Amino acid sequence: MQTVYSHGQPRLRPVWGESPQPSSRPPSASPTPATTDLSYLGAQMEDGTWRCTFPSCNSKNSYERVCDLRKHYKRHSRHLFCRHNGCPKSISSGFSSRKDRARHEARHNPTITCEWEGCPRLFSRMDNMRDHYRRVHQKQSRARK
Ligand SMILES: [Zn+2]
Ligand SMILES: [Zn+2]
Ligand SMILES: [Zn+2]
Fold first, then answer.
1. Which pLDDT does position 22 carry in this prediction?
2. Where is this region: Disordered (predicted)?
């Protein structure tokens, strides 16, 4: 029987940049390495298993071994997220390849030019452009005498 946390250390203590004191650690209390550098991967549960704590991860899996958690976590680091603020794809789900992301981001990228000659405006959607065209240029041309 092995009681790892017999000295009353809180198990889910968040460790943010706290410098651990190696000398204060019991030398052979646990075979796993210090939890300090693993806190970014996941949290250790009551029963000693690990869970992913990646912000947008909805995996309920728990991992007995840290290396399994690490394997799972790699999926997140591979994910690429939309770089447009406010896009649901920028937080909830990402893309596994740059190609996928580029295709998605093209939706945000304004690539439609205004039909009015010399107008520098760019639009991501045709109807936006037409709307702008009507509002700005047709008015202008009407005002012109
Ligand atoms: Zn995860
Ligand atoms: Zn997006
Ligand atoms: Zn225009």
1. 53
2. 1-37
Q: Which ligand is closest in space to the CA of residue 138?
A: 3
* 33 shares its domain with 67: yes
pLDDT at 34: 47
Distance from the alpha carbon of residue 111 to the mean position of ligand 2, in angstroms: 15
Q: What is the pLDDT of residues 43-59, one digit of tens each?
A: 888 999 999 988 777 78
Q: What spacing in Å lies between the alpha carbon of 93 and ligand 2's midpoint?
A: 10
Ligand 1 centroid distance, CA of 60 (Å): 8
The DSSP code sequence of 22-89 is GGGS-TTS-SSPPGGGGTTTEEE-TTS-EEE--TT-----EESSHHHHHHHHHHHHH-B---STT-GG
Residues 99 and 131 in one domain: no
Same domain assignment for residues 58 and 96: no
Residue 125 lies in domain: 110-145
In the DSSP assignment, the letter for residue 90 is G
Separation of 83 CA from ligand 3 center, angstroms? 26
Global pTM reads 0.32
- 43 with 73, same domain: the answer is yes
